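queue> pop job 88
queue> type: inverse folding (structure -> sequence)
queue> payload:
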């Protein structure tokens, strides 16, 4: 089953998400570890009405607390509204001078 985002949402995959074996430490029940404020994700697909010029497999930088987890049929989908994308990473341009030369 495939998920197709709509209403300007983007389907994501977290980059470098691995389960690490951590040492066992007793913590209070209500303790939640702090997450990084920003994260990098790979675009799986965007909604047809997205205004951003993004492509599958492109790396984007987003605000982590705006990424939503949707769970359905034993699968978890990560989605974000396009407004919370700060930008994308590309290896095509090495410095800001390359941007100025395009004009």
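queue> result:
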């Amino acid at each position: 089953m495939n998920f197709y985002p709509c209403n300007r949402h983007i389907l994501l995959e977290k980059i470098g998400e691995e389960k690490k074996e951590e040492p066992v430490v007793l913590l209070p029940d209500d303790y939640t570890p702090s997450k990084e404020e920003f994260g990098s994700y790979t675009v799986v697909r965007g909604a047809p009405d997205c205004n951003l010029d993004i492509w599958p497999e492109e790396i984007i930088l987003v605000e982590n607390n705006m990424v939503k987890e949707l769970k359905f049929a034993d699968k978890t989908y990560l989605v974000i509204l396009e407004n919370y994308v700060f930008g994308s990473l590309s290896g095509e341009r090495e410095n800001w001078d390359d941007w100025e030369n395009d004009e």
